[in-house]
Amino acid sequence: MAIITIKNVLEHAEQFEQMLADYYANLSEKTNRDGVRLLTDYMSRHRIHIEAALEKIPASQVKQILSERVRYEPQGADIHTIEAFQLPPNATADQVLDAAITFDESLITLYNQVLQQTNDEQIRLFFESLLHAEERDEIELKKIKAMDYF
Amino acid sequence: MSFILAISVLCGVFAVLAGVLIVAEKFLVNYGVCKIDINAGERELEVDGGQTMLNALIGEEIFIPSACGGRGSCGYCKITVLSGGGPVLPTETPYLTRKEMRSGVRLACQVKIREDITIKIPEELLNVKLFSATVKSTITLTHDMKEILFELGEPTEISQQPGQYAQVQAPSPEGPVFRAYSISSPSYETNTVELIVRIVPGGIGSTYLHNLGVGDPVIFTGPYGEFRLNEDPATEIVCVGGGSGMAPMKNIIYTIYDRWPDRTCWLFFGCRTTDDVFYLEEFRRLAEKHPNFHVIYGLSDPLPEGNDWDGETGFIHISADKYLEPGINRQAFLCGPPPMIEAVTRVLEEKGIKPSDIFYDKF
User: Fold this and answer.
1) In this complex, how many residue pairs, one in chain A and one in chain B, have their CB atoms less than 8 Å apart?
2) Is the bond preceding B223 in cis, omega lying within 30 degrees of 0?
3) CATH of the domain at B171
4) Is the N end or the C end of chain A the one with fewer CB atoms within 10 Å?
């Protein structure tokens, strides 16, 4: 286990979010299903949680939070997580939603791991905010699935 | 070995201390009676301190929308706290914009009352009531949809507007929770409330409602929602629903044709297969009586060979694009999953409908 900064953790998560956005955009291009295209278009444009969470923190505190150190090595929420869901062009909307729910869960795990490694109040507040955003996303994906439109 | 034992003992001690603190706060800390001033003196409450704002308001029969039972996971119970209430908690920030946080918007379920508090809530929430009712009928609409009709007990009448919703109390392992459902009965039906509910596997609210039988008691609060139907009969109404998003449309359509028999209204409804189609024949009969009512259903899954479907195919925003002429004064109401709402909104804006005239169900 390494000692890394919060900035490193966020870079890891941000990289993962970017990979997800690319994944959805790529699937949107390749799919032969209009429903999957609508869905992936939507999801590729809604991955801005870290940016949004940072915006809610006073600028004076952001620098301090990013430089804090945690004893932690980011695992999961990476390319391997995405590679496990290489969906074919004829993938159904349900398959895409299942993959998206898994991706969200891997970020939830990542943020929970950081929360377990820190007692710093500011960092806790920040990561709890990210965690809730991902949990809310997961609920939205499950509701989209339940509406059975795509 | 002794190192691990020491850490375990230490963790155990901390866990016990945390437990003691929680119990102590609950039973020993007395915040006394606190005052809640609502809407600059319009209502003044005296409540026991230590509870959440949401529970305190419910105790005074002021019902703020909340779907998660106060666990901070739905983000519906927004109020504005003008003084008191402490800082915004991390459990709230995902549901609040920076602008909202600056102007004192909070989640009522996360605000603990420890002092006198001044709050502002939308005026219409002061008119929300708690209803007891019984199930009058249930009709199976499709393989997973039911229409459920409640006969009101106490109070005996409801005053609701098209597009508004009720929160039905459902039992759960963690105690009663409320789930939001749009009211599908027209606003002129004041002694009954009708809901259209799709069963969601594992869903607390839909499972409860689907298992109700005639004569079963139910409790709900309502009506909630800010949508107001444009009263100018020259303004066309466009309703677009997808999947299970039919309930508010039915209310709007019947209310319109009760008041303005000649008003122009478009209903676009999208679902996947013919197995998911419901109310089509009923709406076609209504359209025969009201020639300015246009009913368009669209199926998004490919049609099986030999199918005699005479409606549209493809997603419903494509049908809306095909039928709606641009440049006509319209108000639109949408109900469906967010990607559908986004696609339909784009089409409607291209047709010249102002964003302020496009309403949709909170998802």
Assistant:
1) 79
2) yes
3) 2.40.30.10
4) N
DSSP assignments along A28-72, one per residue? HHH-S-HHHHHHHHHHHT---HHHHHHHTS-HHHHHHHHH-EEE-
Q: A149 at the B interface (CB within 8 A)?
A: yes
On whether any CB of chain B is under 8 Å from the CB of A24, the answer is no
All residues of chain A having their beta carbon less than 8 Å from the beta carbon of residue B198 are: 146-148
Say if residues B131 and B153 touch (Cβ distance below 8 Å).
yes
**Which of B200, B272, B314 is facing A146, going by the closest CB pair?**
B200
pLDDT digit string (tens) for A96-133? 899 889 888 888 888 888 888 888 888 888 888 888 88
Q: What is the CATH number of the domain that holds B251?
A: 3.40.50.80
CATH number belonging to domain A3-147: 1.20.1260.10
Question: With 90 as the cut, is the pLDDT of residue B347 above it?
Answer: yes
- The residue from B125, B143, B167 where one domain ends is B125
Q: Among residues B125, B140, B158, which one ends one of the domains?
A: B125
Q: Is residue B151 part of a domain?
A: yes
Q: How many CB atoms lie within 10 A of CB B259?
A: 14
State CA B80 to chain mean position distance. 20
Say yes or no: B245 and B348 in one domain: yes
Q: Is the ipTM of this complex over 0.85?
A: no
pLDDT per residue over B153-166, tens digit each? 999 999 999 989 99
The domain total for chain B is 3
- Using CA coordinates, name the residue in chain B closest to A150: B272
Identify which of A39, A129, A140 has the shortest CB distance to residue B363. Answer: A140
Six token digits for residue B80: 């504005």
Residues B141 and B187 in one domain: yes
Q: Nearest Cβ partner of B338 from A42, A55, A126?
A: A42
Tens digits of residue pLDDT in B75-106: 889 999 999 999 998 788 878 887 888 899 99
B195 and B99 co-located in one domain: no
Cβ separation A35–B342 shorter than 8 A: no
Instruction: Note which residues in 108-127 of chain B have CB less than 8 A from chain A.
Output: none
d(CA A84, nearest CA chain B) in Å: 25
Provide the whole-model pTM: 0.81
| DSSP assigned state of A121 | H
| Residue B4 falls inside a structural domain | no
Asked if B206 and B263 sit in the same domain, the reply is no
Q: Output the average pLDDT for chain B.
A: 90
Region of poorest pLDDT, from A30-39, B78-87, B108-117, B143-152 = A30-39
Asked if B332 contacts B348 with a C-beta cutoff of 8 angstroms, the reply is: yes
Contact B241/A at CB under 8 A: no
Q: Which domain covers residue B100, as residue numbers?
A: 33-125
Q: Closest residue of B to A39, CA-based?
A: B339
For strands B177-182 and B165-170, give the pairing.
Answer: antiparallel
Q: Where are the domains of chain A?
A: 3-147
